[in-house]
Amino acid sequence: MIRKVIILRLIIILTFIGSMANAQEVEKDVLHNYFVLTRKIEQLKPIALAAKKLKLEDGNSYGEFHVVICGKGVEQLVEKKLMNPYLDLLLKNEIKVFACGFSLQKFNVKEEELPIGINVKENGILYAFQVQKKGFLSVSL
């Protein structure tokens, strides 16, 4: 009787250990994607540094990093002297940068004036919800 109990406990323990190993294996296959919604161009440097650090931490689990610039900050996107160092840093860290289309309209910034590499999302807030539904980790600054 005691022998049967010991064997049963061993089977339960081994099953538990096996399921934990499978759970960890599944975790390795999950990509970590990130999203930031910001209104301040000055935030692009710390955002890029965070992306760089996350990429190192995540290793093969690192997915994508998206940034949407909205509000009054879109006015600065066309200032080449200001934006070039940021764009170099963002490109170097493989960050996809978008401008909010509604903000561009509100502040009279034309899409064709944007630097190469900055695309437009018609509604930055809607895009934030869409990527959250896809599992992106997000923060707004």
Task: Offer a quick outline of the entry.
51% of the residues lie in helices and 21% in strands.
Main traits of this protein?
Hypothetical Protein Ychn, Chain: A, 2 domains, 5 helices, DsrE/DsrF-like family protein
Distance between the termini: 63 Å
- The CATH architecture classification of the largest domain is 3-Layer(aba) Sandwich
CATH homologous superfamily caption of the largest domain: DsrEFH-like
CATH class designation of the largest domain:
Alpha Beta
Shape: elongated
What fraction of residues sit in β-strands? 15-25%
Order of adjacent strands in the largest pleated sheet: 4-3-2-1-5
Radius of gyration: 22 Å
Question: What sequence of helices (H) and strands (E) makes up the elements?
Answer: HEHEHEHEHE
Major sheet details? 5 strands, parallel
Our count of helices gives: 5
Which fold name fills CATH's third level, the topology of the largest domain? Hypothetical Protein Ychn, Chain: A
